[in-house]
Amino acid sequence: MNNEQTTTSQRQNRTKIHLKQALIELIKEKGYHAVTVKNIVDHAAYNRSTFYIHYPDKIELAEDLLVSMLQGLEASVGKPHVPGHKVYTATLNAPSFNIVSYIYKNRNFFELINYDDTLPGLHTRFPQTILKIYQEQFIFETINNIPVNMDYFKRYTAYGFYGLLHNWIQDGFKVTQEEFIHEVIDLTKTHMYSFKYIGDHQ
Amino acid sequence: MNNEQTTTSQRQNRTKIHLKQALIELIKEKGYHAVTVKNIVDHAAYNRSTFYIHYPDKIELAEDLLVSMLQGLEASVGKPHVPGHKVYTATLNAPSFNIVSYIYKNRNFFELINYDDTLPGLHTRFPQTILKIYQEQFIFETINNIPVNMDYFKRYTAYGFYGLLHNWIQDGFKVTQEEFIHEVIDLTKTHMYSFKYIGDHQ
DNA sequence: CATAAGTGTCTACCAAGTAGACACTCAATG
DNA sequence: CATTGAGTGTCTACTTGGTAGACACTTATG
């Protein structure tokens, strides 16, 4: 396979990345709706014509930014995986840690959830993506064949995890990735035990 | 004045900025000495040839990064200024706040002081620049014509301020710019009073 | 000693990025 | 209501920044 195409588009991708980066910063600065195409190209130090080579308008840039980050999140998880810890504690091992480290690596983007007039669709599609990852990429195992509505359980677990993520981001990543993942493990262990011994008391 | 030159070099400046940005991130990741030219261009998504168009080697890139940031710091202060608060509390008003906000805006760069194997010259030339700003851009006034060795006093004030800045950066900017500047004001007020009423007890 | 990885230089090529003009919409302003 | 200004989207022709790839060289590693 020749790498002519990949390296040729390296230049294009680079430009797109810089435009996206500029959009992130400008949303934080003045809110999504106030951002103009001119603002974006000025901030990223490109010509206005260049913008239209890559995107028809601001909406498409925003869409590309959102999709690329959420797809990156999905891709970061890796292949289907059987949790090392047995049972319903699927939140905790390598795949979940991949999610955490991806978010931290791209915290500049995910901080956008702290803003009101922010990237359209972010507040709905970010949690949806977490759920999708749980549904498609995680394999849940039951212990002792305890019957459970697996669809509900995945939702429950996914949104629980999302809540913790959201809080972590909102607080400005005050604890490290490692500390955060350990907090999640502790919480889920508690959940596991209460589920195991007392039954689903919710 | 035509802007042909400025806009033509916009492209060049943009590339240089991205290379510098890549260097910052790579120093944090693996230390200055371990960073190669190849690492830099890969990280910034440029061709290796492109690097040599702009810089003869890694050292020159590092030098350009350091100089541009420290010159930017100097330039951020603005023109000579007589402190609004009277006397030896020259640390506190608009010019000092400019320094603080410049550092915060470029915190990505200034965080490099937290690393051991970091940008050559940073640890010595950063405080020197603060001092230079105090010497060249601040006008100190005495109250009631109290005699004082002005050169010593500027050093004392500049390095005191630098110590606070250093701590603020090292702690990961835990307090906001506004909180930080107010802490500095409080500290300097104390200093002013003790100086004024008790004399230089140090 | 050999293999691998990085350096610095050079050449030829081309497409990404640029300047600038156009007609258009939409708000704000007197 | 007419006017001014700012932003949008499109298009054309140009140029230069960035690319590929080869070269000889230096270090480091096993």
Would you mind describing this structure in some detail?
Chains A, B: It comes from Neobacillus vireti LMG 21834. Chains A, B: One of its GO terms (molecular function) is DNA binding. The structure is a homodimer of 202-residue chains. Chain A is mainly alpha-helical and 202 residues long. Helices cover 68% and strands 0% of the residues of chain A. The longest helix of chain A has 27 residues. Chain A is elongated, with a radius of gyration of 20 Å. Chain A starts with a helix and ends with a helix. The N terminus and C terminus of chain A are likely disordered. Chain A binds a DNA duplex (30 and 30 nucleotides) through helix 1 and helix 3.
- What oligomeric assembly is this protein in? homodimer
Q: What Rg of chain A, in angstroms, do the CA atoms define?
A: 20 Å
Largest sheet of chain A: none
Total beta-strand segments of chain A: 0
Q: Uncertain spans of chain A, ≥5 residues at pLDDT below 50? A: 1-5, 79-91, 193-202
Strand content of chain A: under 5%
Helix content of chain A: 55-70%
With helices defined by DSSP (H or I, 4 residues minimum), what is the helix count of chain A? Answer: 9
| N- to C-terminal distance of chain A | 55 Å
Class computed from helices, strands and strand pairing of chain A: mainly alpha
The largest chain-to-chain contact, stated as pair and per-chain residue counts, equals: A-B, 10 and 10 residues
The H/E string of chain A reads: HHHHHHHHH
Shape of chain A: elongated
| Residue-averaged pLDDT of chain A | 83
